[in-house]
What does this fold into?
Amino acid sequence: MMDSIRRGATNLLSGFYAGDSIGRADQLRLATVAGTAAKPAELYALLRAYYGGNGLYQNLARGMHDAGVANPAMRGLRNPAFRVVEFYVAALWPGQLPDCLPIETDNDRIVEPIHQVWTWSNWGSQKQVAARWLPMLGDLFIKVCQNTAKDRVYFQLIDPAHVVDFDTDERGYLTYVRIDVPITRRSRDATRSLTHTEVWSRDLGTFRRWEHDQGDRPVEELGAPLEETPLTDFGIDFVPIVHCQFRDVGEARGVGAFTLALDKIDEAARKATRLGQQLFRSNNATWVVESAGRDASGRPLPALSVGTDGATTGARVVVGDETMYSLPGGYTLTSLVPNIDFAASLAALNADLLELQADLPEMSYWRIPEAGGNLSGRALRTLLAPALTRVEEARGNAHAALVRADQMALTMAAHARLPGFTGIGDYAAGEFDHAFTGQDVIPADAFEEAQTAVQVWTAAKMQADLGIPLSRVLEERGYQPDEIASIEQGREADQGALDDALGAILDRQPGAVVGVQPGQPAPPNGNGARPPAANGR
It folds into this structure.
């Protein structure tokens, strides 16, 4: 993998600088970021190189050197790309299926079929690959497939670099997709490098497949396809591929988590490299022996050879890891270490990193241990507020894409009449609609949950004291009609037990310290005392 990353980065920079100026490189990078470059795969190769980190700048420097462009040596000593991407791996879909993606739907018949599709897709593992590709590359393509035996439907992640062309409609649904995947075919001991090309077209209503050695030539020049299948054979009239953008800036392709900060990352790496060079190069002491006296004739003392074994010309004695010099009278040993203000250089580098963190607030997640102490969930959410906002945007895009992939899979599986997928509803009737309950990146701790429970109890009691019917108060907090009726019956049996009935609201608070059922004592308030008795309403 790293070899392909390095080759891609080298080829990219060679193309940037070959026979042209630095300005042309900036233009090409800008065009690629804007989605107008001829080959977006080049940008994906560069972004993968930043994420991989190791050997990034060595290969970039080699490409620039081969193109005849001078460039100071750099090392990726301050490259936050990996950390930024891994933040989303930890925050986007954390945990195990199906708990990390709770399904909300009015049609409970589709829940188990969706879980079955996830199992067939190994989505518990593949979702983490998706969580890396999306922030790293800015794009994610999920293909809904049916195996040859047609006994299961599953998701397949398509490398965005292999999606060479696509069109969308006004809703963002794909109407045309061309995928080129490099493959190797073996015949006895010989191998051939070929390209697997597949084209999905909603307008033509077909799926076509080729294997060829023509590279990225137009489809009409590839000859007759090896396979051509109507979409209706799959029971669909759509392209079964979903495109998700990490950040939608109105272009055909998305923008990754750190794509727009590459220049600042390079600047921080440049300063860190220079600081490291000064630290190691300048601290390698060079010694000079100076003569401070003259001989009896008034002539300057002759040059002294330091480090020899002759005691008359000076001796070097090594004791442990210390070196001591014994010099004759009239000679001094002086170090030529330059007086460099390392603190100022480090401060300039740290200032750049703070500026970079303003563009990449995800970096704050990895600096939490530096804050020290036992920070509460509320304090962490305040500290990470900008990063959490970005998680919500990315999660919203990813959830919408996964819902569409689920709906496509249900449609294909129902058409194939797979066991468990019959009688689950119809997409056109809206019966495949569903959503996912968002998971907290920083969950509330037990103290926060207890505070929330008491606050909800207090608010509910105030509503009841103001004359709002208890049934309405309970309904607003998610109680079902049969539960409300049971609580009302208990209240009618004892008109003075309103506190007990309201206390049942705490059952709706996850992790509440005190769980109260009707007929039990009311919970304590925040000071440890029980709330005042109700007035009987």
